[in-house]
């Protein structure tokens, strides 16, 4: 452990992703200021992402919070970096930009940056007995709605300082083929398992949002949740498409779906009574002949899945009714 009274400059690296400076923060800052006679720099970690659960506050907001409690203190941003060596070198360079001379000691609390630091200066972990992790504070705040103008303004400010978001989803055409009779040269009949949501008239492909998993894993999960079917066979990629989801109309956000096709190997009989049943947020599922679906899609399928019907028909080489005789 370094002898702290032998250092000329103290530097702290914190995130302060909380609504106010808590007592543990204040004690740490006050102790460092007293040890180094106000020759102190506070670095605030800045993430390349904005408006997330882990990083809800931007640098300016947190800088103002610190300066209000400690007027005149030097507060600087420090960008996150994928490599500890580069991050540590950037930190050392900024310290020497402000204080070119003098011995430096870095301070951090429990679970701070200290384990990642590999620069040239001494580092010291400051004991914080009343420390409360930032994620616990944010989770508690996230459960409370406050009826005030400042609260509403803060929510609006946060949403206005986010990147445009594209939500990643999957849709899957679960299909089955009727076996051809001997000598039948026609294309096999294909049926698609379609679902209908509550309060909707049209049908849609099975699908949903990707939740921290691979696209193939999402396909299998959604098929199980929405239709109670298990996809044991291959999952074939059809294409990716921007889907005009009505929930994001008049917003800057969009939905990008990865569209797949997968043949149902079991879970429903080829003939006779279907065993599948609707689950999750679907009210009904049913098998629909692909040719019929393609030729009457505007009467059967929801608007934002029309493009998927077109691409699926192209994938299976299905042609419009009336054109078959010309092929």
Structural description of this entry:
The protein is of the alpha/beta class and 327 residues long. It folds into two domains: 4-160, HUPs (Rossmann fold); 166-326, Alpha-Beta Complex (Nucleoside Triphosphate Pyrophosphohydrolase). The protein has nine helices and eleven strands. It has helices at 23-36, 59-69, 84-98, 134-142, 149-160, 215-227, 290-295, 297-300, 306-315, and strands at 9-14, 40-46, 74-79, 104-108, 122-125, 166-177, 190-197, 204-209, 236-243, 254-263, 282-289. The strands form two sheets. Strands 6, 7, 8, 9, 10 and 11 form a six-stranded mixed beta sheet that branches. Strands 3-2-1-4-5 form a five-stranded parallel beta sheet, with helices on both faces. The radius of gyration is 29 Å and the shape is elongated.
CATH hierarchy: architecture of the largest domain: Alpha-Beta Complex
The structural class is: alpha/beta
Q: Helix fraction?
A: 25-40%
Query: Mean pLDDT across all residues, rounded?
Result: 85
Low-confidence runs (pLDDT<50, min 5 residues)? 267-274
Number of domains: 2
Approximately what portion of the residues adopt beta-strand conformation? 15-25%
N- to C-terminal separation?
A: 83 Å
H/E element sequence: EHEHEHEEHHEEEHEEEHHH
User: What would CATH call the homologous superfamily of the largest domain?
Assistant: Nucleoside Triphosphate Pyrophosphohydrolase
Count helical runs: 9
Biggest sheet: strands, sense, closure? 6 strands, mixed
What is the CA-based Rg, rounded? Answer: 29 Å
What is the fold named in CATH at topology level of the largest domain? Nucleoside Triphosphate Pyrophosphohydrolase
Identify the overall geometry. elongated
Task: State the total count of DSSP E strands.
Answer: 11
Which CATH class of the largest domain applies here? Answer: Alpha Beta
């Amino acid at each position: 452990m370094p002898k702290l009274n032998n250092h000329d400059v103290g530097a702290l690296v914190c995130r302060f992703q909380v609504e106010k400076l808590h007592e543990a923060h204040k004690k740490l800052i006050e102790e460092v200021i007293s040890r180094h006679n106000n020759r102190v720099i506070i670095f605030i970690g800045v993430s390349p992402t904005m408006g997330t659960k882990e990083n809800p506050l931007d640098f300016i907001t947190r800088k103002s919070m610190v300066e209000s409690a400690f007027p005149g203190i030097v507060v600087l941003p420090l960008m996150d970096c994928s490599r500890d060596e580069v991050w540590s070198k950037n930190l050392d360079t900024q310290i020497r930009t402000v204080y070119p001379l003098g011995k430096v000691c870095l301070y951090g609390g429990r679970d701070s940056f200290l384990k990642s630091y590999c620069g040239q200066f001494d580092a010291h972990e400051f004991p914080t007995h009343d420390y409360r992790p930032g994620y616990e504070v944010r989770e508690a705040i996230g459960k409370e709605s406050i009826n005030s103008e400042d609260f509403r303004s803060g929510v609006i400010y946060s949403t206005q300082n986010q990147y445009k978001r594209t939500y990643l989803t999957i849709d899957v055409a679960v299909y089955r083929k009727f076996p051809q009779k001997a000598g039948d040269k026609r294309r096999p009949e294909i049926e698609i398992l379609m679902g209908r949501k509550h309060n909707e008239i049209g049908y849609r492909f099975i699908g949903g949002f990707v939740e921290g998993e691979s696209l193939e894993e999402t396909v299998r999960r959604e098929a199980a949740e929405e239709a109670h079917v298990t996809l044991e066979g291959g999952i074939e990629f059809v294409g990716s498409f921007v889907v005009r989801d009505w929930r994001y109309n008049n917003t800057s956000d969009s939905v990008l779906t990865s569209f797949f096709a997968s043949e149902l190997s079991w879970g429903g009989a080829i003939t006779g009574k279907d065993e599948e049943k609707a689950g999750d947020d679907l009210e009904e599922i049913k098998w629909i002949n692909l040719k019929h679906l393609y030729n009457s899609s505007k009467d059967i399928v929801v608007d934002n899945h029309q493009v998927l019907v077109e691409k699926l028909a192209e994938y299976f080489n299905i042609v419009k009714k009336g054109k078959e005789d010309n092929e």
